[in-house]
Amino acid sequence: MRSIKDFTTKSGEKAHIKVASIEDLASMHKWINEMSKENTFITFSGEEITLDEEREYLEDLVEKINNHKSLSLVCYVGDEFAGKCDVEIKTHLRKRSAHVARFGFSIAKEFRGGGIGYNLSKYTIELVKEYLPDVKIIELECFSSNLPALNLYKKLGFKEIGRIPGAIKYKDEFI
User: Fold this and answer.
1) pLDDT tens, 103-116?
2) Around 13, how many Cα atoms within 13 Å sit in the side-chain half-sphere?
3) Closest C-alpha among 73, 71, 69, 58 to residue 119
4) Contact 17/5 with Cβ under 8 angstroms?
5) Helix or strand (DSSP H, E) at 158
6) Res. 12: pLDDT tops 90
7) H or E segment and range at residue 121
8) Structure confidence by residue, pLDDT tens digits, 135-153
9) What does the radius of gyration of the chain's CA atoms come to, in whole angstroms?
């Protein structure tokens, strides 16, 4: 299970979705550090991830994928890394919550608004049904001020169940 889907972005560019692998190391390392510098709606904010840290993260991720504890898809537009989407079983909660998984995704700034987030998320969720069949609930957290993501999640069928005021510090504000 490596190649997943090819599609055309809204701007007419060819995009390719595949399962994350160690071959994505250089692209993912560059991408996560760009996301961190951007100070966007992710938990990284200004931190610099070393290549060794990214390698360790990716090796752990690939192991979880191989052990059916996680699914991580990446998208390329041409040779450019455009984004990543993950669903990971909440294994720290043991058997009682083994049917619950966490969802997350991020798209590189230059590729936002082109349908990549929707396609990447949609195909990840579809594949979870066969690759992680015990998952019955997919949950996510989202910054309340991230309106494009909130709209996308609604379009994908997610339902908001609550907000925790002040839970995230974003650009010197508790939201």
Assistant:
1) 998 999 999 999 99
2) 17
3) 73
4) yes
5) none
6) yes
7) helix 116-131
8) 999 998 887 778 888 898 9
9) 16
Output the CA–CA distances (angstroms, integers) from residue 168 to 20, 48, 71, 114, 148, in the order listed: 28, 20, 26, 27, 18
Tokens of 100: 């619950």
What single-letter amino acid sits at 110? E
Q: Which tokens go with 137?
A: 């609930």
Distance CA 91, CA 83 (A): 25
Report whether 107 contacts 116 (CB < 8 A): yes
- How buried is 136 (Cβ within 10 angstroms: 0-12 exposed, 13-18 middle, 19+ buried)? exposed
Q: What are residue 102's phi and psi, to 5 degrees?
A: -100, 140
- Looking at the DSSP bridge assignments, the partners of residue 76 are 16, 81
Kindly report the backbone phi and psi dihedral angles of residue 67, in degrees, each rounded to the nearest multiple of 5, phi listed first: -95, 10
What length is written for the chain? 175
Among positive and negative, which fits the CA dihedral 30, 36, 39, 44?
positive
| Joined tokens for residue 15 | 């995009």
